[in-house]
Amino acid sequence: MSDAHGLDARLAQWRARCERMLERCLASDDEPTRRLSEAMRYSTLGGGKRLRPILVYCAGEACGAAPEVLDDAAAAVELIHVYSLVHDDLPAMDNDDLRRGRPTCHRAYDEGTAVLVGDALQALAFEVLAGPGRDPGPGDLGAAQRLQQLRVLACSIGTLGMAGGQAIDLAAAGGQIGAAGLEIMHRRKTGALIQASVLLGAIGAGVDSGAQYTALERYGTELGLAFQIHDDVLDVAGDTTLLGKQTGADAARGKPTYPSLHGLAEASRLAIAHRDAAIAALAPLGDRAQLLTQLAHYVVNRSH
Ligand code: GRG
């Protein structure tokens, strides 16, 4: 990612905040569940780009929020993301051995533990997002804002979001889905959580409707598609060591992808077109959208 406007430094700050939050959320001294907690920590800590928490912080800041009010949402979206990775890697889904450069959770532990890691991470995400269960103090998020964040996150990972997208993915392997079907699958499977991350940041800043909210909704949709199309491209043209997971996996499973449907060059062009649409959507935010604009460039330039 380029450091043209200090983005690298901001990313490092946000990643460090996110790591501290995740460490705190995953601390446990419950002896009977020591192995489960250890597997949750193994899967979550010390790896990954933390793109979704960064989107929470970046969108929240663009709308005027302090990072303190965004911490819970940032941790929640990463916990959900890790849950999806752990379940996606299971033998019943993609049956992957490598994730973030290390053995997948079910390889390092066992399948039953990996199922429970996903379940527990999902529950923990909503617990964290719901807040500490006391009346909000000065500077805390209000109950109405938290409720709206909970709703947005829940919708993004259910039937019309990530789980539904994964169901379409499972049904599509080896079959014909078509360009429109593939776009719907990507929008739900990966795009919905990316969009929700942006919106949770906005809601944390008190922006829950109006022109800025609509702009960020559009930005999130387009960014999510750009991200997933570029991910498809990396699966064909990327490097296993850099990616920390096996390349060519989609093709080996007969999965429809943008390169398999449109060809590599057209897939890359479409990723850039969605990036540009994401950037164009940010117009109502004016200068405050600079970092979000740079993040959009990063999403289609990244090598992993
Ligand atoms: C199991 C309900 C359920 C859903 C799984 C999102 C998903 C559905 C699975 C993820 C599998 C996958 C590899 C999708 C491709 C796009 C993607 C989410 C890549 C990984 O995200 P990154 O690149 O990963 O942000 P890091 O490791 O950097 O966090």
Question: How does this model look, in words?
Answer:
This protein is mostly helical and 304 residues long. It has one domain: Farnesyl Diphosphate Synthase (Orthogonal Bundle), CATH 1.10.600. Helices cover 68% and strands 1% of the residues. The chain is built from 15 helices and two strands. The chain has helices at 7-25, 34-44, 51-62, 71-88, 105-108, 111-130, 143-157, 162-172, 178-204, 210-237, 240-243, 249-252, 258-262, 264-281, 290-301; strands at residues 98-99, 102-103. The protein has a two-stranded antiparallel sheet. Strand 1 and strand 2 (102-103) form a beta hairpin. Helix 2 packs across helix 6 and helix 3 runs antiparallel to helix 15. The longest helix has 28 residues, at 210-237. It is globular. The termini are close together. The model has no long low-confidence stretch (mean pLDDT 92). Bound molecules: geranylgeranyl diphosphate (GRG). The site of geranylgeranyl diphosphate has 16 residues, from helix 4, helix 8, helix 9 and helix 10.
